Records
---
Amino acid sequence: DARVTQTPRHKVTEMGQEVTMRCQPILGHNTVFWYRQTMMQGLELLAYFRNRAPLDDSGMPKDRFSAEMPDATLATLKIQPSEPRDSAVYFCASGLLGYNEQFFGPGTRLTVL
Amino acid sequence: GESVGLHLPTLSVQEGDNSIINCAYSNSASDYFIWYKQESGKGPQFIIDIRSNMDKRQGQRVTVLLNKTVKHLSLQIAATQPGDSAVYFCAEKYSGGGADGLTFGKGTHLIIQP
């Protein structure tokens, strides 16, 4: 049963610390997305990759957030330095070009104190 | 900016009844409209999509209706079951320039009463 996996599932950190979230997309999927979910803003697209190349990161605060795909099986989202307002659930999703269905992982719940 | 929004934050229905979840959108250039279901503690799960040149699409127990005149989208769930309890999001996709990202609405919490 192919699934998107994310680690860690929960992360509590202090303001100013670096946070790295990891995602393993479904094997064979060529598009990977990062979303952030909060009660106030709902689900927001942060960035996405196609064939490991960044296509759109306009939803991401550039000064502190960075997203990469070191290889086809790993996507990372890094926050440095983290701030309390970054507290949210971060979802990774993967899919195939030309298909609307995006497969979401279970999310990383980030709390920045 | 343009956004996708929902009329009601919570909808409570009796088990076995039909549910209708509504969504208003504002980007008339969107190519697809998609419904996702999110259960507590999980990521969103795709339910059904509809292309902008269609007005109705049916799936298993679900029907999506699109009214472009009033920019309105709805999800109908037939014979609701306890497992249908979740938050439902509508999302829109604009494929201009090869874009794939989704713009999500705020969500409607569907509660199934026994």
Note: Residues 35 and 45 of chain A are 4 Å apart (CA to CA).
---
Amino acid sequence: NAGVTQTPKFQVLKTGQSMTLQCAQDMNHEYMSWYRQDPGMGLRLIHYSVGAGITDQGEVPNGYNVSRSTTEDFPLRLLSAAPSQTSVYFCASSYSAGTGADTQYFGPGTRLTVL
Amino acid sequence: DAKTTQPNSMESNEEEPVHLPCNHSTISGTDYIHWYRQLPSQGPEYVIHGLTSNVNNRMASLAIAEDRKSSTLILHRATLRDAAVYYCILTGIQGAQKLVFGQGTRLTINP
């Protein structure tokens, strides 16, 4: 298994540009989520999905869109990039047993800079 | 969500045991205690989790206080590769997919 993969690894955008960060997992996990990590900080949840066709907002959803058309893929869209979105973005997935015991698998991250 | 409190940083020597503490005085009866770690320039990785009893796996041990208001992650014999930020996170029944990360403990291992 490749686990959770993210592309690209690095990206530089200009203010106002749009782009999509890709995330895929091959573990048949129902749950997928996106986090951002600013320098020196812990991760913060942006959006998450409990299955294909179902998404919900996390702690910091503004400026980001998501959709989940397949179990494997969960892309994150920046519609109009702003310097405040400069961060490292991590995708994660987990199998749900319906308890708090579920563990998450994280991707390697995408480092995004918005000029 | 219940909060956790960890020291900002800790330092230890290679091949010695390391005890990383976590306080969670407002933990509820159904909250699991999870530990993740983040190596430099990598995504977080799962270390261990428990509910009430102490737990062991190939990476570490988790000691949970009897009242569950605190826990300790134990690395039995630290290596340089264990240098990372360690996060103690509580997850409820619906919360395992929505992890709330604090600042964590930055562990430095001296050769």
Note: The first strand of chain B starts at residue 9 and ends at 13.
